[in-house]
Specification:
heterodimer, A: mainly alpha, MetI-like fold, 2 strands, B: about 290 residues, mainly alpha, two-stranded antiparallel ribbon, 12 helices, globular
Chain lengths: ~300, ~290
């Protein structure tokens, strides 16, 4: 036995050890990257975060005047509100459509139709965010001016329609997975009791898959919060406490994208933009973590 | 024998109403896709030509073609692919073939999920902090591509993992029983049997990387740069480049009096290439399913 083991160990060539090491390294790389992202964004913003920035004012003041000559103020409250209001409105549109489509695709469709819808949804997900922004800037802008008789169509409503269209594919695909994960025996048992297809869905499937559906909504929301180009181009880009769907807003992401090109490295303003980055990273990290825990929750059941 | 009671009738009615309602909800999602492509094509037809694709922007980007941004996007995609394809595929191989069920693997999986969830603008900040400044690459194609590579890594990992999982365990066991090592099994059995699925992931990475704007804005893409027309090697990877996505952003928001149709033309080239790449992945996947031997 001993001889055998020695032999097999001797056979493992040096190149194989190197390759295994490389594979392991690649596997760990994702952890390194996630920490790296936090570390490097933090590093650029840390100086001002711990030395000078009034965090209370940063989070609660709506006054964002980073380029004012004598009284610079870095209040992101309006931006945070902008991000959350545009996301909330987008979710109001995306959730019914996303969940409805997921239910239809997973429960009512013939296999052929299902393939077609899935391809359409996949293609919808592939359209780049800058193109959504461009559509918001041109087509949707005109449409909103005509329909609501608004002076300008680049509003929260415009941005949230774009965000809704972008997050629907995520919601559909994750929600559909969640519905598919419900065992067929549940459906059969309900049908054997005389329930119609809709009763099965409403009374059995939705309660059974609720965690997965919640995760789908959360991940769709996380996508909306992190989206940059579409909201930069479609929401009017003015710092403003939102007062309704037709008001102009600005989001956290759009602020970084619009202003990072114009600041000098190491400047207070530059560092504040990185601190906003940390804030965004934290928000999406928490939302993703919750979604992941919710999904894990179903698996353990 | 079975006559319909009012309750049955109501049940049937609800069922049909819901079925039609959900069908409408699902069909509505096809409309934006068609509408966008139709609208862009309609507006872009007057400017679309070979000359549009192969000439540089002119008159402060008010007119002319999209050669420089188009080539720049190709450079960014290819360089990012060279990094993220091997790292992503091997990371998936690690997670699927080597990793044991323990807390460390769970953290790695969580890291992949979170990496996919990091906003693109935060990736941009990371790219500035890590590649442009810390690694000293400056604003260059290399820095932008590395940022894109890390951003698109989860796409490749997710689809490769799926492809590897589809290879039956018995294949691996048979191979191990013949005395093959882990790596030999992966190289001779697992990867050849999942190569189409892996390729699909790589193709999706290309489509994702080509469309991104925010991560390259501050790491290497530039508003304007003239390059030799028709020369495929006009860019140097240590210098900046133009990109199709950023070009669309610039000419639709920053440049006044752009020739009618030019932004639409740029958009349709971008959307067209991305959708074409995605369609390739879909066709490959369908083909793979019909060819599946087990």
């Amino acid at each position: 036995m001993n001889i055998l083991r020695k032999k097999s160990r001797a056979k493992l060539p040096f190149s194989e050890t190197v390759i295994e090491l490389f594979i392991r390294l690649c596997g760990f790389s994702c952890i390194i990257f996630v920490f790296g992202i936090f570390f490097f964004v933090f590093r650029e913003g840390a100086g001002f975060l711990f030395n000078g920035l009034d965090i209370g004012q940063f989070l609660t003041s709506p006054e964002w005047y980073p380029t004012s000559l004598n009284n610079k103020r870095y209040g992101t409250f309006a931006l945070i509100l902008g991000t959350f209001s545009v996301t909330a409105l987008a979710m109001c549109m995306a959730v019914p459509f996303g969940l409805g489509a997921a239910i239809f695709v997973s429960e009512f469709c013939s296999p052929k139709l299902r393939e077609t819808f899935k391809i359409v949804i996949e293609l919808l997900a592939a359209i780049p965010s800058v193109v959504w922004g461009f559509i918001g800037l041109t087509l949707m802008n005109q449409l909103i001016i005509r329909v609501f008789n608004a002076p300008i169509g680049l509003t929260m409503l415009n941005g949230s329609i774009m965000l809704a269209l972008m997050s629907v594919p995520i919601i559909v695909s994750i929600a559909e997975d969640a519905l598919k994960a419900v065992p067929d025996s549940y459906r059969e048992a309900a049908e054997a009791l005389g329930a119609t297809r809709w009763q099965v869905i409403y009374r059995v499937l939705l309660p059974a898959a609720k965690n997965g559906l919640l995760a789908a909504v959360l991940l769709g929301a996380a996508r909306s919060i992190g989206e940059t180009m579409a909201v930069l181009m479609a929401t009017g880009h003015s710092v403003n406490i939102p007062s309704g769907p037709l008001s102009w807003i600005r989001t956290l992401t759009a602020t970084i994208a619009a202003e990072l090109g114009e600041v000098a490295r190491g400047d207070e303003h530059y560092q504040v933009l990185f601190i906003i980055g940390i804030l965004l990273f934290t928000i999406t990290f928490v939302v993703n973590l919750i979604a992941d825990l919710v999904i894990k929750g179903i698996r353990q059941e | 024998m079975f006559t319909e009671t009012p309750i049955d009738r109501r049940k049937r009615l609800t069922e049909n109403v819901m079925r039609i309602f959900l069908l409408v909800v699902t069909t509505v999602m096809i409309i934006p896709l068609l509408l966008i492509i139709g609208y862009l094509l309609y507006k872009a037809i007057p400017v679309l030509s070979f000359e549009f694709l192969f000439s540089n922007p002119r008159d402060n980007m008010r007119a002319g073609g999209i050669w420089a941004p188009f080539l720049g996007t190709i450079y960014l995609v290819v360089v990012s692919l060279l990094v993220s394809a091997p790292v992503g595929v091997f990371a998936a191989v690690y997670l699927n073939e080597y990793a044991r069920e323990n807390w460390f693997t769970r953290i790695t999986n969580l890291a992949v999920v979170n990496l996919a969830g990091v906003p693109s603008i935060v990736h941009a900040l990371f790219g500035v902090g890590a590649f442009v400044l810390f690694a000293g690459l400056g604003e260059s194609i290399l820095a932008a591509s590395l940022t894109l590579a890390i951003m698109t890594l989860p796409v490749i990992i997710a689809s490769t993992t799926e492809a590897l999982k589809a290879v039956p365990m018995s294949f691996r066991e048979a191979c191990w029983n013949l005395g093959a090592t882990r790596w030999q099994t992966i190289r001779r059995i697992v990867i050849p049997n999942s190569i189409s699925g892996i390729l699909t992931g790589v193709i999706l990475q290309v489509s994702r990387a080509a469309g991104e704007t925010a991560p390259i804005m501050f790491t290497g893409a530039v508003f304007y740069k003239a390059i030799a027309e028709g020369n495929l090697f006009a860019y140097n990877i240590t210098e900046q480049c133009m990109a199709l996505s950023l070009h669309l952003f610039t000419i639709s928001t920053q440049v006044p009096d752009v020739t009618e149709g030019t932004p639409h033309g740029t958009a349709i080239v971008l959307v067209g290439s991305v959708l074409l790449v995605n369609a390739t992945a879909i066709v490959l996947r369908v083909y793979l399913r019909t060819r599946k031997k087990w």
